[in-house]
Design the sequence.
């Protein structure tokens, strides 16, 4: 269920192992290929996409970055990834481009991928043959499955269909959100800049040599109508600006407000239905982990399903939830850590500010602290 990064990567991994699947998606192909979301791929994510044959455009158009900059008290400090992590890097490549490449690869396999399905209902996952009922092009269809992979994101039906009491929810809301824009302007810096500022956090990112992606910390209930383009540029300039450096402006082509939340359900399984990606866990975007975690989940799930189909061995599937939750909680912690260190807390006092600045200067002056941030950012190989 779901043709986001989790569902599409899983379907492709299964295809490569000769296992059939049907991918069901409630949105249109057009919508999925233009939905602006994450942009940072860990080394392991980019390597996996390459290994499964969907990395050609990513290797051509993706921007390989060897570090990020942390800005506070009017100075920038660079965290160098290769020297701190044994040569690892990240690739900046938009999620909708990853999704485009995966949809094209799926269609090429001629295995089913149905867009704009309606009235989806899942059931029977505690039996040997769970079912999915849905509508497609005016027809009502019932699929009898061996397994259901709930890759239908944070508002999907799979998690919601699990009986109350079977899952434990862990969550935290943050008292702020991000106002994000895409602008037709060349990036103003070669690398991402995470800026801590008394007016709130700001992030300089990018999508290509001609497109900049920028974010501002705002209130969770922020009204976009109060943010005409000029106000956005002024605020970005205030928070990111340094003497001798200017922020390139350009036409704003996309604008949106994203809430910030940490959320995990345990276990990520109910009978023959397995949850993967955002359907089971959400991270605030500060650590750039959401998409990467979704891919890491289905990599493990595909191995478990392959062992089951190839030799009837269900032990890896039984361990699925416990195995992936170790990485999930590491990423939850890292995302919370980056979020807490970099955002102005509305009810924070001078003591909080001093703690944040102490943490920032530690991370930027101690090689060991920098290495810890760097290894989490590029993605841990073994968790
Ligand atoms: P999704 O990409 O959400 O895919 C789930 C799919 O299931 C969707 O296509 C949905 O349409 C489909 N679906 C839902 N319900 C049904 C149904 N009933 N039947 C069929 N299909 C269904 N992460 C970062 O790391 N950095 C960021 O900057 C960042 N920005 C984000 C901005 C926004 C607005 C959002 C919502 C998320 C952002 N994320 C970001 C998180 C990141 O995009 C997600 O972690 C990632 O998309 C997870 O992939 P997924 O496949 O699990 O879920
Ligand atoms: C992005 O480019 O959209 C992006 C980059 C880094 C983040 C979050 C989002 O931490």
Sequence:
């Amino acid at each position: 269920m779901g043709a986001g990064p989790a569902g599409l990567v899983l379907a492709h991994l299964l295809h490569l192992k000769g296992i059939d699947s049907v991918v069901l998606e409630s949105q249109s192909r057009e919508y999925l290929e233009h939905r602006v979301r994450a942009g940072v791929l860990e080394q392991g994510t980019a390597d996996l996409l390459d290994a499964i044959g969907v990395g050609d455009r990513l290797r051509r158009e993706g921007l390989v970055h060897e570090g990020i900059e942390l800005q506070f008290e009017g100075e920038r400090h660079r965290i160098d990834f290769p020297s701190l992590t044994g040569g690892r890097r990240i690739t900046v490549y938009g999620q909708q481009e990853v999704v485009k490449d995966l949809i094209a690869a799926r269609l090429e396999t001629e295995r089913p991928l149905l867009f704009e399905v309606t009235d989806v209902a899942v059931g029977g996952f505690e039996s040997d043959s769970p079912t999915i009922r849905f509508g497609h092009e005016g027809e009502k269809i019932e699929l009898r499955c061996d397994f259901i992979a709930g890759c239908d994101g944070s508002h999907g039906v799979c998690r919601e269909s699990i009986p109350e009491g079977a899952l434990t929810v862990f969550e935290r809301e943050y008292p702020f959100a991000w106002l994000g824009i895409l602008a037709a302007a060349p990036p103003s810096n070669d690398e991402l800049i995470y800026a801590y500022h008394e007016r709130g956090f700001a992030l300089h990112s990018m999508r290509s040599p001609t497109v900049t992606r920028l974010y501002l910390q705002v209130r969770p209930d922020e009204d976009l109508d109060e943010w005409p383009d000029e106000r956005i540029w002024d605020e970005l300039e205030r928070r990111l600006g340094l003497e001798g450096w200017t922020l390139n402006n350009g036409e704003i082509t996309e604008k949106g407000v994203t809430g910030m939340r940490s959320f995990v359900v345990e276990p990520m399984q109910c009978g023959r239905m397995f949850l993967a990606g955002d359907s089971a866990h959400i991270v605030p975007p500060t650590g750039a982990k959401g998409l990467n975690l979704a891919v890491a989940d289905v990599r493990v799930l595909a191995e478990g399903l392959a062992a089951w189909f190839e030799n009837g061995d269900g032990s890896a599937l039984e361990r699925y939830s416990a195995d992936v939750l170790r990485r999930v909680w590491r990423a939850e912690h890292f995302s919370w850590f980056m979020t807490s260190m970099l955002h102005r807390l509305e009810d924070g006092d001078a003591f909080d500010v001093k703690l944040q600045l102490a943490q920032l200067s530690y991370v930027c002056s101690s090689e060991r602290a920098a290495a810890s941030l760097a290894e989490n950012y590029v993605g841990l190989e073994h968790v």
Observations:
- The longest strand covers residues 168-184.
- Residues 84 and 372 are 8 Å apart (CA to CA).
